[in-house]
Structures are given as C-alpha cells and as structure tokens.
Amino acid sequence: MRRLRLLGPLALGLSIAATVAGSSLADTYRPDPQLLAAAQKEGEVVFYTTQIVDQILRPMIKVFQTVAPGVQIKYVRADGLALVVRMTNEARAGRVQSDMWCMVDGVQALLRGGMATEFEVASAKGLPPGLVDPNKRWIALNTGVRSAAYNTDLIPKEHAPRNYQDLLNPRFKGKIVWNPKSMTGAWGFISTVIKGMGDERGMAYLRELAKQDVVPLPIAIRAVLDRVIAGEYAIGLEMNNTHAAISAAQGAPVKWVPLNPVSETLQVAGVTKGAAHPNAARLFIDFMVSKAGQEIFRDNDYVPMHPDVQARIPELKPQQGGYQSVVYTPDNLETETTRWAKIYDDLFR
User: Most buried in the list 45, 68, 72, 326, measured by CB within 10 Å?
Assistant: First the structure.
C-alpha cells in the first residue's frame, strides 16, 4: 500500500465564504463516459497544489464528486518550491506519489526535470493558445492579477495613485513597500514596467522610482498587503487584486488600483509522469478547466482564466476592467528573472 502524508492547509490571511451552487454547476458539466469510467476504476487522485484549501479546493472537490462519484481527491497543500522539492525527491527515489499538480512558480523545474507528462482534456479545446502549453504539459486554471494597493486611511481618494507616474510623487517617498526578490514582487514590477514602457523609458522610470526609497519586505505578498492594511506602509506594489478585494469586503481600509499595464500570472495544472491514477487526474483537470469548474473559481473569489467566465468583481479581470496586462506563462516566468533581479540589485539595493 502506498503511504501518503497529507499536509494540512496553511493560513494565508483573510478569506470570505462563498456559496457554491453545486447541483446546478454539476448539471452543466458532462464528462467523457470512457474517461469517467477509467477514473472511477482508479478510484482516487493525489493532488499536489498551492491552492488555498478552504477558499477553493474544498468547494471544487465537493462539486466534482457529484459528477464523478467514487473518485476520491487526496491533496497535499504547500507552496510551489516545497512541492517541486517533494516531487523531485520522490522521482529520484522511484516512488512517485502525486498524480497531478497545480502551481505558479516552479513549473519550469518540473518540466526540465521530466516530471510532467503530456495530456489532453476535452474542456481545453478552443481556449486561447496562451492558456494551454503547446507541448501539452500544462493548462491554466486561473490567473493572478497584480498591481498597486493603498491604505485608504492614509491616502485620501484625491491623492491616490492612478498610474505609474503617480508613484513618483514626493509624498510617497519611503511609504511604498514590495517583496524584493520575487516575480510576484519587485522583479515582476520591474519586468512589467519595462515590457509596458519599453527598455529606454522603463529604465528611466525605474531610476526615478529608486529615489522613492521603496521598502524591501521579503515576505509573501499577502503578508505585505496586511502590513499596508495595518498602516505600516501607504502603498504596496505587486499586490494581488483578489486579496485586496477580499479584505476590502471585510471592511479593511484598502483599495487596489491597476497601474496600466498590470502583471498577470497563470496558475496551471498538469499530470505527473508515472502517476498511478492518470485518468482520474485528467478528469479532475478537465472539470476545473470546464465552464462549470471556472464558475467555482469565480464564485470563490479567484479570477477565472476562461474567456467566457467573468470575474465576480468585474474590474478584477483585465478584459472586463478595461486595462491591459503583461501575461507571464510558465515558459517566460522564470527564463527572464536573471535580468530583472540584476536591475533590482543595480537600482534598488
């Protein structure tokens, strides 16, 4: 018998409950009969994921099991780096435990290490090319959209930043914060500025921003946002818009603003090479990618990736909010970080 140690969910700040209309969503999804039968024969799927358990994973599993009775979902929840290390060690030992995985950071390490296998699911047909790996090793599940968020108690509406130039106002010197060493922090901000403005204008802008003494805070961006909400800093850069929306709905003094363009990353899923339950893994991915699955992301305050499924709060999705985004796929998320890290070291350290 395979032994599996399940990790409990991590506390990731504030969240709000969302009601999922399970029966109606299930009615809109029709799994392929042959895939369903194969998945039911396997009986379970082991899912390594960075998703927030209470906010999205449990609601997703609850509805999935109404359309795939007899297929149990076991999960290991950790951050992307921890999951990559775990999968690497298991692969080297010849004891693959996971059937599927989901993450933002670390995907390239899985691909380079040969830990992701090719697969296809029916629900992915017709999706824009940028949401599906051309080599069939991953499919996007949802997106993370990041830009600036500010404390509304510290900054009145008339002084709030609305674009990149506004961050250069002397009133904000020493009051801006970011994670210094992450693509969901300073590196992502630098990359988006340069991709949005071009090399020459972007570098000139970053030199001016460096004079604002942006505070480096090497903690998760959710924790950075909490410091902004607490009033320790006035503005956080590369803040996730859903985090800010959830906190604002609970009465926190915070507002997210898109400094056009914004950063947008993909949370993607794939099937593990050597998985014991590959059909069950494909079926669960197929469900999450379907419109029914995407509506569960929407209803639980994630930004759905599907073009036909809107965000619950329209302005959180670039296509609905009327602003542009620089999209980072697993293929380009990690390949350019050396350049952005050097610019950070040269200008902001």
Answer: 45
